[in-house]
Amino acid sequence: MRNKKANEAFEKRARELVSQMTLEEKVFQTLHWAAQIERLGIPAYNYWNEALHGVARAGVATVFPQAIGLAATFDEDFLEKIADTISTEGRGKYKMQSEHGDRDIYKGLTFWSPNVNIFRDPRWGRGHETLGEDPYLSSRLGTGFVHGIQGRDDKYLKAAACAKHFAVHSGPEDIRHSFNAEVNEQDLRETYLPAFKTLVEEADVEIVMGAYNRTNGEPCCGSKRLLVDILRGEWNFEGHVTSDCWAIRDFHENHKVTANAVESVALAMNRGCDLNCGHIYVNLLEAVKEGLVTEETLSTAVTRLLTTRMKLGLFDPEDQVPYTSIGYDQVDTIANRELNLKAAEKSIVLLKNEDNLLPLKKDTICTIGVIGPNANNRKALVGNYEGTASRYITILEGIQDYVGDDVRVRYSEGCHLCKEKVQDLAAGPDRMAEVKAVCEESDVVIACLGLDAGLEGEEGDQGNQFASGDKPNLNLPGIQEDVLKIIVESGKPVVLVLLSGSALAVNYADENVGAILQGWYPGAQGGKAIAKILFGEACPEGKLPITFYRTTEELPAFTDYNMKGRTYRYMKNEALYPFGYGLSYTTLKASATISGNEISANAPLVVSAVIENTGSYDTNYTLQAYVKYLDGDETAPNCQLKGIKKVPVAAGERKTVTLEVPAEAFALYNKDGKLVLNKGAYELYVGDSQPDARSAKLTGTKPACFELRYDGESVKL
Fold it and tell me: Each residue of 408-446: pLDDT tens digit?
């Protein structure tokens, strides 16, 4: 947490400035494009900036793997390192742009990231912006990201991070401006709020963004329950709240909870939404005149906004602020590109590797076939909310660069990403002959299939083929599976590389393809990273932050926000590939002991794990701890992730690590939304996967299981 006295001093200075403003000046400070007030020495400032996986939409910056790919690292410390690099580039770009008088959109130091909404349904188009389906994983990775963005100085912010979209928001995209997400208190507390709570209380996140939809009848950007009672009341949030863009006009235009724009801005402002992404807050002039909003309430909002800018050091001499020396030379450096490559390598998940088909041995291959619409697709490298890289390396280019002139690379696009043909005037599938020819000439075929951000993304994004950005189902789109079948029927060894930001039901591939890699949207260096994985120069270590289902039909309705039947925590059917799952090229063994078999309400359990790498590849072991309450009712989760630790283990190395599991990890929220440590029996699982039967079948191992009891009286924590 930052120095309380420093925060109070910034707030006092901000309040003094606000006291000198006219009503009109205050109003124009609540817009995302805050106006200059020359007489008070307040420069213009635009709050709207994005940094989901790199500084976005403002020219060249390092384009890291999309957020869902970073989540697959299961590495909180690494995400802090990534975010620290992002904020360094953000500072460098801000300094350069300011010196040239550019204070436009996407040029500030208030980054509207991370997105810690729960990826509860694989059809949601924006799910790849999130950190996955699990509240604990999202909390830990989000905390690392916020620390990296905001820095560790006890007085100044390096940049300001934003937890979004608060709260209970995960599609559908096409009705988000009018949709009411109905959620019971138990799911609200157990699933939808934990990441936000952690980012506010532990990570000290500076900004919270409201969502477009209503939650239980209240528009999120004007919700008393969310903004007043929980965010500022229970959690004591002291930063500022921003609306999502143009969300406040939805109050009267779509949600119909207010009659007009003046009533809408009054509702949002009175509930603590300080900043308007958009321009509707100009109506605050009329709202104050009509007595719907007090000028004191408006002054409080503007004070919060200026306090953020002061924490960023924007009102202090440069030599007093530790981050103002960061220059434009820190953008797109060699070191940043190397970190980006490492991030891509760490995010890739090995889903299948029958008979150790991977890694490929370059000296045994004369010709390699690379087939598919994502083989040379730059758009499939970056996802959305992206910056501009100085160089992109597609899968095809990565393989070509890696093998050089030693191996011939034959390429076919195979098919359009989602249409029947590549060329509009052609007669049907127009690349099948080429696919067959490439297969005939090749010793091994790399099939590059999946999605890109033109197929899944945000409602309103340019180029979304599915209009809303949500997926209609979990199938490979277009005729991609037909192309895959042709490749398999060639009889050549086949490796499938999936690029997507969400789960796909690749049942045919699971049954018929030798090896499968999930590459996500792996960033500008993605093709190089995938080539290194394919040829064994890097060892896959990623774990799935989401469940891969077998079919859409097993899922509840997309609009149903009840968690029953959703994610690994509540699903009843067997997953195709489970949350927490991922294979390796090396052989890893783990054994564990715990400090006792009784749960204490006052002290954590200590897990001691011995991890051994008996294979020939250096890697990182992903230690995962899951908790299950055995005496719970039908609302209790199957199990829940409650501990993670990344452990570097070299080939032949044996390492002992400890992990603490606090009492809160065993507690569950009841139907009233109260966190209770219940009396009864529990199980604690420790290993590198969750304790489901499918994971055991796929990995050939099971996590260690410890039987525990809590025999005290059930207690609220």
Answer: 999 999 999 999 999 999 998 999 999 999 999 999 999
Instruction: Give the three-class secondary structure for 249.
Output: coil
244, 250, 386, 461: the active-site residue? 244
Does 456 participate in catalysis according to the annotation?
yes
- Straight-line distance from the first to the last Cα atom of the chain, in angstroms, rounded to the nearest whole number: 22
Choice among 80, 129, 332, 456 that is catalytic: 456
Q: Distance between CA 643 and CA 706 in Å, rounded?
A: 15
> What one-character DSSP code corresponds to residue 235?
S
**Residue 382 parent element (H or E):** helix 379-382
Distance CA(83)–CA(51), nearest Å, equals: 9
Tell me, yes or no, if 424 is annotated catalytic. Answer: no
Distance CA 205, CA 144 (A): 11
Superfamily (CATH H level) for 334-544: Glycoside hydrolase family 3 C-terminal domain (3.40.50.1700)
Residue 558 half-sphere exposure toward CB, CA atoms < 13 A: 18
Looking at the DSSP bridge assignments, the partners of residue 410 are 369
Task: Give 60-77 pLDDT, tens digit per residue.
Answer: 999 999 999 999 999 999
Could you tell me the pTM of the whole model? 0.98
User: Does domain 4-326 fall into CATH 3.20.20.300?
Assistant: yes
Domain 588-716 classification at class level: mainly beta
Element (DSSP H or E) covering residue 185: helix 185-187
